[in-house]
Write a structure and sequence with these properties.
It is a single chain. The model is unreliable at about 270-290 (pLDDT under 50). The protein has about 290 residues and is α+β, with helices and mostly antiparallel strands. It has two domains: about 10-90, Arc Repressor Mutant, subunit A (Orthogonal Bundle), CATH 1.10.10; about 95-280, GAF domain (Beta-Lactamase). Helix content is about 45%, strand content about 15%. It is elongated. It has a five-stranded antiparallel beta sheet with strand order 4-3-7-6-5, with helices on both faces. Helix 7 (about 150-160) crosses helix 9 (about 185-200). The longest helix is centred in the middle third of the chain and has 18 residues, at about 185-200.
Length: about 290
Amino acid sequence: MSDANGTSPTRQRQGIQSIEVGTRLLRALAAHGRSMMLRDVARHAGMPAAKAHRYLVSFMRMGLVEQDANTGRYDLGEFALELGLASLARLDPVRLAGPVLDDLCEHIGETVALAMWGNRGATCVRWVEAGGPVTVTLRNGVVLPLTSSATGLAFSAFYRSPYLKKMLDAEIEATAELRQTTPAALSEVLTRQLDEIRRHGIARASGSVSPGINGFSAPVFDHTGRMVAAITSLGIIGNFDLDWDSPMAQATRQAAATLSRRLGGQVADGAADQGSSAGDVMPQVADAEPA
């Protein structure tokens, strides 16, 4: 069977093998992190030096590779940088999070969500419901409290914004008034809590906003090392283990790390990129209300 141009689908998928072979050199240069001698880049690409040299000459003409005139070492060129920056500019955390959230939901069997920073604070922008006899449901647009939800605590610990401290101070003031304590006392407790969250790479909360709901939340980082989102997992107390190293915590960390890598972020082993917010949802099949 042929298309309008008389070319079969199988033939269209064949591609150009020489381009695929040459790309191994670019991958070697990208993975190495610094300029390389010809013999080294050829070895990492798995080809003879003479063959690698011919590809590198063509790549230099295209601007994908450059060679230092003094040392003879090869490195990625200006056009490679231009392509990389253009690719990063097209990355959409919400779109890329879709498959990650679906996989996490299927893996842990609990409701999961993506939150981003909005003009009112940490805001749910996407969620996936697990289903089952008891359902935890979020609503897009819900703003999570910074000091009492797992999602908010993740942003408090890892996010950088000139408005974050102002929002935290206002929330602490309001909470102190309700609890008839001092803002200084609450700030001291929160400081210790955020230090613990940073050590574990993930935030957690239990029934602090919505009774009966536990949650984990881990930060997602982009290529600049800036937190851009949080992935949250939520479940009913009794079925949702809040231990720092529980399967729920590990799965949430791994999902956040996966999304960070897709955004060009460098994630250390054990880092978390997802978030969960225990106080942002209501049990049963009810939408959560902002705290």
